[in-house]
TrEMBL record:
GO terms for molecular function: ATP binding; metal ion binding; protein folding chaperone; protein-folding chaperone binding; unfolded protein binding. GO terms for cellular component: mitochondrial matrix. InterPro entries: Chaperonin_GroES (IPR020818), Chaperonin_GroES_sf (IPR037124), Chaprnonin_Cpn10_CS (IPR018369), GroES-like_sf (IPR011032). Belongs to the GroES chaperonin family. Pfam families: Cpn10 (PF00166). Keywords: Chaperone, Stress response. This is 10 kDa heat shock protein. It comes from the Eukaryota. Eukaryotic CPN10 homolog which is essential for mitochondrial protein biogenesis, together with CPN60. Binds to CPN60 in the presence of Mg-ATP and suppresses the ATPase activity of the latter.
Length: 106
């Protein structure tokens, strides 16, 4: 039985999970040529869509995620749990500790 999730807003991460969506690479070159979709490389940059509340460690300390909704982050090339949405979009669920870095605006 396959269910299709209609929107990323209906997904609520638990514990230290973070829901992200990859930033789409430009399908147009600097000279104005359009590239086929299969030739466009996946970027390691993503936007945070939702963040779980965190978890309590073995010592009873509350550990909260280091990112918040709207942050731009670097994610690993592989890993996470991919969730297909009803369109051709997909989102990825990572643990907070799997996110490589937060991108600051310069």
């Amino acid at each position: 039985m396959s269910t299709i999730i209609k929107s990323a807003k209906s997904i609520v991460p638990l514990l230290d999970r973070v829901l992200v969506q990859r930033v789409k690479a430009q399908a147009k070159t600097a000279s104005g040529l359009y590239l086929p979709e299969k030739n466009v490389e996946k970027l390691n940059q993503a936007e945070v869509l939702a963040v779980g509340p965190g978890f309590t460690d073995a010592n009873g300390n509350k550990v909260t995620p280091q990112v918040k909704v709207g942050d731009q982050v670097l994610i690993p090339q592989f890993g996470g749990s991919t969730i297909k949405l009803n369109a051709d979009d997909e989102v990825i669920l990572f643990r907070d500790s799997e996110i490589l870095a937060k991108i600051r605006d310069a």
